[in-house]
Design brief:
Helix 2 packs across helix 3 (107-118). This protein has helices at residues 34-40, 72-93, 107-118, 161-173, 191-202, and strands at residues 9-12, 19-23, 45-49, 53-55, 58-60, 64-66, 69-70, 100-105, 125-129, 147-153, 177-183. By secondary structure, the protein is α/β, with parallel strands linked by helices. The chain binds D-malate (MLT).
Amino acid sequence: MSGELNYLHEFVPGSSARTLLLLHGTGGDERDLLPLGRDLDRDAALLSPRGNVLEDNRRRFFRRLAEGVFDQEDLKRRTDDLADFVVAAAQQYGLDRSKLVAVGYSNGANIAASILLRRPEVLRTAILLRAMVPFELEKLPDLSGVRVWIGGGKQDTLIPRENTERLAEMLSDAGAEVTAHFFEAGHSLTSVELLLAHRWLSAS
Ligand code: MLT
């Protein structure tokens, strides 16, 4: 469905050239991260799609076989679908794609990481909150010029710190400029990390 806006979504126009692509976690929807997006950047446009996979009535961006075990075929397909949506939405709303920043939480962070690795032309900047390695790769893409801020929870039982660290290493080996912080937190976000992410974004 390339070229069509094939995801239900919220779009909030902004007063700057930047757009935050907000990607919610499992069980969320397109409205979930709007306040967080506004806290991160009060001037940016907000583009927030709704995950189109249902797991026990909870929305996600791709299927999984078990906690932390992803359905790789589905992940591939949905990564392309979402990347195509972003390109089509940018065209429809007149957004500058070079100023697009993905902000993903949990399942949303994982599909953002998947877009970075599989469709690197679509995203140049990302804030990944509670992310893990989406898939293994033999050959890394060239992510030079890409900037990524990663926030992990030291006590996160869903996403082990080592896994997030491996993702940070993978992105950095691919040439991205990666900033990773681990907080005294579990899977839920803390105000301290959002403040740090906000500062990082403001300095970009
Ligand atoms: C995922 O399935 O993407 C991760 O395990 C995080 C989650 O959504 O629980």
